[in-house]
Model the fold of this input.
Amino acid sequence: MRDTLQLTLCLTHDCTLRCAYCYAGRKYAHAMTREVAELGMETGLAEALRTGRGVDVSFFGGEPLLEWDLLRHCHAYMERRAAELGVAVRYGITTNGTLLNRERLAWMAERDFLVGLSVDGSPEMHNVNRRYADGQGSHAAAAAALALMQEFPTLRSRVICVVNPANHRWLSEGVQWLSTHYNGIIGLNFDYWSRWSDDEFESLCRQLEALQEKMLESYRAGAPVHEENIEGKIWSSFREGERSCAHCTIGEQEIAVSVDGHFFPCSRMVGVGDTPEITFGDVYHGIDRARQAYYVATRGNATPECRLCSLRHRCLNTCGCTNYAGTGSINRVSPFLCNLEQKLIDVADSLAETLYQESNPAFMQRFYRV
Amino acid sequence: MKINPSTRKKNLLYPMAAAVVLAACQQQQRLGGVLLLPPGVQPGEPVVKPQEEKENTRPQRLGGRMKQMMPGVRQQPLPGKKRASR
Ligand code: SF4
Ligand code: SF4
Ligand code: SF4
Done:
């Protein structure tokens, strides 16, 4: 169980990019006011105090670095208030890298930020979706940011690679590209909002198999590629007969504050004021307790089929935002999720079985500490 | 595509090792910090991950599929602000 409250501040809906899978920048190119940000932080602090937790503050957008002054203001405000109240705080940011520079990275590294950089793999894969308003691909900027990040060896970082129907055909090459330019953790972020056709899903499966081969080779070469979905599935097999996965904590340990001050139950559900049915209060009225209770009571997985499934403890079937994206309901899984989870588990198990049988040193070290 | 419960028997060719509490949360799947057991904990002993880190993903399009989710709960308008009408 996580012992922190995840407080996400969407500093702006504006963005330097116009990624095909994102609404940011199109209609609501405005920034959060200081007032909204401060009230949002106060809500997070009060909630953390009430529940005895620390706070993870995450700056999100749009592109949060467009609001660099606001970000620094929020950091200073939070540091001061958290110290007054005795609440532990950590910080993170998700950025597309276009506005990263050495000075900003140094500032964040000094403050122990976790920097999540969005790079969708190789140039071919990335530029399918991640473009500037004029249609130009943005891979060069992302690659430059990635290179810059490596100048800060102690910086906590990760790379996020979105996989959607339009770019998935480059998936294994894309991860290969990332692993040769970055040695941290790569997180594939599958697009559950899109409708994947059967053909697209089949070709995604072929890509995951190719990725499995690449990961196998990387372990054999002693320089393992770490992809968190697949590694997560290996870990998930390690708890016989028990839930391997913590349950979704939406409504309880997640508050995402939208630019205009609405509270959303998970940062992946933050909208632009167009989905009031999934908010639970706002900075001016506070947390709506009735709706919070609704989330807590409703979250989890209520899909009847899953009760019979032998993989239910290794499956992401309780993630509210993923379920919401696929079915409109936080506790119902979508067919895409079901099929993808089974594929990921197959890929992970066959990778792990091979490496275990080979007594691969890097594998044994990572998963068995021997 | 259909939801297809698996009947696969669990008979993995790699054994259970150190039990690790995992967060299923998509934003929490950062395993880097989970991999080493805390000092004094033996492999095989369940451990609770000490501190999770927040990961973000970019905001994505929200469709209008949520109609039924919270029947009867009303949205309060923010003072002085018109809600976006989309
Ligand atoms: S960089 Fe992020 S916020 Fe900007 S358009 Fe792309 S996905 Fe959206
Ligand atoms: S694999 Fe499919 S049926 Fe099994 S628990 Fe996951 S979503 Fe449910
Ligand atoms: S909805 Fe998913 S991503 Fe959000 S808190 Fe729950 S498990 Fe995590």
